[in-house]
Recover the amino acids of this structure.
């Protein structure tokens, strides 16, 4: 039996003034509300719904809204209302029926007494609103979408909220002082670096466009920055977010396309920044460790562009310049989101450059660590455990709770379970290290003209065959993804509910020493093996081993609810059995 009710009120001054309130709850009870027309929607929470509607009615930007729905529940308190308000904003934005016109003024993902008991109620409210036509997609579809996972309205855990508040404080101080600055936001996989970056850009745009504190909910964590003085400091702000990875960049561009105040054109490559004729005030760089040093690029035209940008920005082309130098030359303030242990190719920023930048940021108190791991439900120790396991440090397996972590001897059984989990939970995919040649690459001569079903298979294990990801952009959500295997270049930066990870023969166990070692003869990523002729660097097996182990560490930390593992090399499989429970 549901205890909530939905009061629908025409969004007109007379209707609001005269609306009956026999129980008094519309004027003195915690409530959540949504005001919309056919195109836009605004969501809020309040302790006096009728008064708040009257206030909103006076806002010229809400004059076109035509109906208010007030959600009441006997058990509601302010913490539950904050929680539901945040969820509704994320659900409406992700569903895409309406344009959410809220400013991003801070939504905190905080615990409160009885929170778990409210979650089923919130889902009942969603279903009620969906029956009223306010949502198009199911809740599972919404919460599995990139729009939800990367939402600029994402509720932030205290760790993320602290980082954004400290960044804003430092940024406004630097703007007022006329200082050029580099900030670093560092965190392991699953700490939400990308969400922090997107949320930060949205917040800056909303502050810039605001007319003062009325544009933020009173008492929100960011409301002070909507006050007089701060919007003026951001006047004519030129901001962008740089995303080195093509697949993730495409997804973030879609996010920006849907969010008011943001533009798809603000999602950039490093080359876009380097070629820009007008510098940026603020550049946020996601996965900054994936920026390139001076190395052979993926095409002749990019090699030429690299040299031309160096010459234009620095007066000469030199192997010492990296894409990070472009970012710093072309922006007054740059905010780098990074994790050095997620570098996966030798062409990525050199470790010494990352160390230098991190050291500078710490020295200037512009270093903001993220420590709360939110992706993997196995607990905070899982990431370190995976890295230690691959490094051969023989870690003790942490308490995993309900997390499904299993080693398979039969890859066919692992695939069956991935397909089963995809039917019930969605977003379950097979992934692998780059230990098989990409024969089905659509860029190969004549391959693009072949229907997918007629292209050769790339991976064959014990009679089971798969192709590598046929979609380079947004592969995880592509129609053929469940029948294919994703590489690091299509899954880094994304969440899965369940990940099936195939560890190829590019890693093996050294029988004599018991160490996990890289096997160059089994590694198929040409760019991952390529020496840096421009800088005269020849990469040793030990150096490439670091990147390959980083790749598997990333793959093993994609699954929110579970990770299944199949190891091709028999000796390594037996070695890992001591760390991964058998299926």
């Amino acid at each position: 039996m549901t205890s909530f009710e939905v009061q629908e009120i025409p969004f007109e001054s007379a209707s609001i003034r005269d609306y009956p309130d026999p129980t008094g709850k519309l004027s003195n009870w915690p409530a959540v509300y949504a005001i919309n027309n056919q195109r836009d929607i605004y969501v809020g929470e309040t302790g006096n719904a009728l008064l708040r509607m009257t206030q909103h009615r006076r806002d010229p930007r809400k004059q076109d809204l035509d109906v208010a729905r007030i959600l009441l529940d006997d058990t509601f308190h302010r913490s539950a209302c904050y929680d539901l308000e945040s969820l509704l904003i994320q659900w409406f934005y992700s569903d895409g029926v309406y344009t959410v016109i809220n400013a991003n003024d801070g939504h905190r993902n905080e615990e409160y007494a009885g929170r778990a008991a409210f979650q089923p109620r919130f889902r009942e409210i969603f279903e009620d609103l969906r029956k009223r036509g306010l949502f198009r997609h199911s809740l599972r579809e919404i919460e599995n979408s990139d729009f939800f996972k990367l939402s600029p309205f994402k509720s932030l855990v205290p760790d993320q909220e602290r980082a954004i508040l400290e960044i804003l404080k430092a940024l406004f101080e630097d703007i007022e002082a006329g200082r050029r600055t580099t900030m670093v936001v560092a965190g392991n996989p699953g700490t939400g670096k990308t969400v922090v970056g997107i949320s930060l850009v949205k917040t800056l745009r909303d502050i810039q466009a605001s007319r003062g504190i009325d544009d933020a909910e009173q008492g929100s964590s960011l409301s002070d920055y909507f006050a007089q003085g701060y919007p003026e400091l951001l006047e004519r702000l030129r901001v962008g977010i740089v995303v080195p990875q093509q697949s993730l960049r495409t997804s973030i561009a879609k996010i920006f396309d849907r969010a008011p105040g943001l533009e798809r054109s603000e999602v950039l490559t490093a080359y876009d920044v380097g070629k820009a004729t007008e510098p940026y005030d603020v550049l946020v760089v996601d996965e900054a460790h994936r920026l390139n040093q001076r190395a052979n690029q993926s095409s002749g035209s990019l090699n030429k562009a690299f040299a031309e940008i160096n010459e234009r920005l620095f007066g000469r082309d030199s192997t010492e310049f990296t894409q990070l130098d472009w970012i710093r030359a072309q922006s007054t303030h740059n905010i780098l989101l990074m994790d050095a242990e997620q570098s996966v190719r030798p062409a990525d920023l050199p470790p010494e450059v990352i160390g230098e930048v991190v050291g500078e940021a710490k020295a200037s108190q512009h270093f903001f660590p993220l420590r709360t791991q939110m992706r993997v439900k196995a607990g905070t120790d899982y990431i370190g455990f995976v890295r230690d396991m691959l490094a051969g440090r023989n870690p003790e397996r942490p308490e995993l709770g309900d997390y499904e972590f299993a080693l398979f001897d039969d890859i066919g059984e692992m695939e069956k379970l991935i397909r089963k989990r995809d039917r019930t939970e969605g977003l379950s995919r097979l992934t692998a290290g780059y230990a098989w040649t990409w024969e089905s690459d659509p860029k190969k001569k004549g391959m693009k003209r072949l229907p997918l079903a007629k292209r050769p298979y790339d991976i064959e294990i014990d009679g089971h065959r798969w192709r590598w990801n046929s979609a380079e952009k947004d592969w995880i959500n592509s129609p053929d993804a469940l029948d294919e295997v994703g590489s690091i270049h299509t899954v880094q930066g994304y969440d899965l509910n369940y990940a099936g990870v195939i560890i190829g023969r590019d890693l093996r166990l050294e029988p004599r020493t018991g160490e996990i070692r890289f096997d160059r003869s089994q590694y198929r990523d040409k760019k991952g093996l390529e020496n840096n002729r421009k800088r005269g660097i020849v990469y040793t097996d030990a150096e490439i081993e670091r990147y390959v182990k980083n790749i598997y560490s990333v793959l093993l930390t994609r699954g929110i609810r579970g990770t299944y593992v199949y190891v091709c090399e028999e000796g390594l499989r037996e070695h890992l059995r001591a760390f991964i429970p058998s299926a």
Remarks:
- Residues 14 and 221 are 34 Å apart (CA to CA).
